[in-house]
């Protein structure tokens, strides 16, 4: 894997998690591709517009967002990331306190990496 691309994607992963934690809709808008499809832990599929609206409206409010176990693979010009994230907060009216495994696909568009697809599964909950 190209070391520069790897460093850029790792940096964008950090930015993405910070944007999730701080409800930074502007940064999320920059990092997510307009045609994003994301499968949640219950099997529901969300678009970028749906995700941004949940952050804008306050339906997502996260207090802790800490990553570990990051893995990256380059596939052609894309980068696939698997990462464990510990999350504490509120999502659509339900308290969240657990570990989740995210899978994201990053694609380079005119010198900007964007998430084009993703999914998350629950690893554990404390509730």
UniProtKB/TrEMBL annotation:
InterPro entries found in the cross-reference section: DUF4440, NTF2-like_dom_sf
Residue ranges occupied by any DUF4440 domain in the UniProt entry: 11-115
Pfam families: DUF4440
Stated name of the protein: DUF4440 domain-containing protein
Organism expressing this protein natively: Nostoc punctiforme NIES-2108
